[in-house]
């Protein structure tokens, strides 16, 4: 229901895969899962492709069977959608082929005003530097671009999305996927990229290594604070916001549980459920990210930052306000591995003045009063309730609010 100002919190996932790339289910089955689980928007972001044109697959091929697809997945597709919907043919060897439906056809089954929309998306997947960029509400396919290094590669692919946006006049937005995947991207790679506005602070794919595997700064919350502090306090650049996604690849009848749906999502505050309004509010930071908590209120008038979680019986909550103050220690030193070697491919080690816990409150609501010298303040809620569909064992439900700059009201540039 809309609040008194006409805004609604819309639930959505920005990073999802299907048989169009390396997911293990047909896109209709994938979409149905999100629709039935109360999502309002979904981006099917397959690798280096838009769900457009004509594509046929043989569900019996090894590449589909090995990742949990094959005849069982096809049977699920048949049971859910029926032979009248499904298009099949025999190839030259007499083997069954099934047509993958493009997004424009899938929309006809699910889209409803103020209930559910589907957003064109692509995971632009660059292999040399392992840089993956999601492009939300894309119009035309973008080929991955490779630069001389990781930073340049991020910049080239982010700017390719921005260039298409400016050329077409269509609101679209890039975000950097899973920086810790194969420990490919450091904070220093991300800090100077002017057009980078969002990255994944939480990715539910167990193979992505959210918290790193090879040493260095493993916590993406810490990476976020480093980026915010250096961009705002040194570079004079815009803040970067953080999204949660599930990066789902495995669905019903899958043999794997490593990338199940429903592990992370965003809640976007917007008056209207359209791709353009979702993109604009994401870009403005008018959303929160979560792996299971629901927020009852997030508000700031530039003087006070108010946060309230929707409480569950028997669950305890810790609300942390995290930030960096002006004049912080900007020095850093390289990470040194167990062999005594400095590693330029790991985030550097920074002062504890970056990302301080400015206030911690036990309870389901809290308010932080700005002192005036904060570069930014962000809030994080951590609960004592374990997450059933977890990324890692022992994971608790939590939520991430976007950074607030002192003197600016939360969401004041939204819906322009």
What is the correct CATH architecture of the domain at 8-53 and 102-295? Alpha-Beta Barrel
The percent of residues in helical segments reads 10-25%
Provide the spatial order of strands within the biggest beta sheet. Answer: 8-7-6-2-1-11-12-23-22-15-20
Arithmetic mean of pLDDT: 93
CATH class of the domain at 8-53 and 102-295: Alpha Beta
Here the CATH topology of the domain at 8-53 and 102-295 equals TIM Barrel
Major β-sheet annotation:
11 strands, mixed
Structural class: alpha+beta
Which stretches are low in confidence, meaning pLDDT under 50 for 5 or more residues running?
A: 412-416
Beginning-to-end CA distance, first to last residue = 21 Å
Overall geometry comes to globular
Overall number of strands: 23
Q: What is the gyration radius calculated from CA atoms?
A: 22 Å
Total helix count?
8
What is the fourth-level CATH superfamily of the domain at 8-53 and 102-295? Metal-dependent hydrolases
Strand residue content: 25-35%
